[in-house]
From TrEMBL:
Record protein name field: VOC domain-containing protein
Organism of provenance: Halovenus salina
InterPro entries: Glyas_Bleomycin-R_OHBP_Dase, VOC_core
Domain VOC: residue ranges: 4-55
Length: 55
């Protein structure tokens, strides 16, 4: 039985378009948007689902 989910990630070609689709289709609000760098350069959008965001 699954007790919790830390995160689910989607790799997309256009983060702005994907974020708009998540927000419009699923009614989600973006929790935060960040740029991460290191071995890779990533732009991420984080969405909280029913208060389940866990760090």
């Amino acid at each position: 039985m699954v007790e919790r989910v830390h995160h689910i990630a989607f790799v997309v070609g256009d983060l702005d378009a994907a974020a708009a689709q998540f927000e419009e289709t699923l009614g989600l609000e973006c929790y935060t948007r960040e740029t991460m760098s290191g071995d890779y350069y990533l732009e991420v959008a984080v969405y909280e689902l029913d208060g389940l965001l866990q760090s």
